[in-house]
Amino acid sequence: MKDLFGQALLDYHNGNYTEDIITSTSISGEDILPLPYLFRDFNEMPNLEQKALKLAKGNVLDVGCGSGSHSLYLQKNGLDVKGIDISKGAIDVARKRGVLNVKVLNLLEETETFDTILLMMNGTGIFQELVQVSKYLKHLKGLLKPNGQVLIDSSDIKYMYEDDDGGFWIDTNANYYGELDYFLSYKGEKETPMKWLYLDFKTLKLACETVGLKCDPILEGEHYDYLACLRQK
Ligand SMILES: C[S@@+](CC[C@H](N)C(=O)[O-])C[C@H]1O[C@@H](n2cnc3c(N)ncnc32)[C@H](O)[C@@H]1O
């Protein structure tokens, strides 16, 4: 990984904002990811994220914290927060913005336990592909304190396969339709392609059941997105 995402966050934080990140996926063309969005404050966050922040309690792990927007809000409200991310640039920025407890760490290498674990901005993306979901869910379950909760958002992206006549062109012999290849470029450089998973609520709930987690819907967003809360059974 070249960490272009982290580089873009660093540029923005250091006042060198000239370009946005360009993304595309295996089923969609180029899209702009505006850097200011990655530095949003509470009022600029979608309802689902605001709701998750309001539900957070106790000591919190912000998984894939990026520039630390959610961690900062919680820290300012008196919660004990740890932000982790595999992007060194992102962790540098989160630290510079004032998040006190941050670490370059893969979720699968985290060992502490938490009352709340947050995975925001398509939190299931980190699972990468359907076959890996139970591994990540089992790991998350092991990081929960008694009565702890995982707050995670995602979307049912079936709508992306809809054609003009309202029919769907999903290839039923292919992998799960929410498994995408994700491409990112910044300032003309291409990041190593990665896998990014969108999970519909029903599939997430089923996967949770197989590993002994309860999965409740908390809120639906405006565009097939949702916030879910996972707890130990
Ligand atoms: C879509 S960004 C979201 C950033 C931030 N949560 C936000 O809402 O602005 C996903 C983040 O997850 C991080 N990430 C991806 N896989 C990870 C993993 N296995 N462990 C920790 N962080 C991961 C990426 O580096 C990236 O910063």
UniProtKB/TrEMBL annotation:
One of its GO terms (molecular function) is methyltransferase activity. This is Methyltransferase family protein. Gene3D superfamilies: Vaccinia Virus protein VP39. The keyword Magnesium does not apply. The lineage of its organism: Bacteria, Pseudomonadati, Bacteroidota, Flavobacteriia, Flavobacteriales. It comes from the Bacteria. The keyword Iron does not apply. Residues 60-148 form the Methyltransferase domain. It comes from Jejuia pallidilutea. SUPFAM superfamilies: S-adenosyl-L-methionine-dependent methyltransferases. Pfam families: Methyltransf_25. InterPro entries: Methyltransf_25, SAM-dependent_MTases_sf. Keywords: Methyltransferase, S-adenosyl-L-methionine, Transferase.
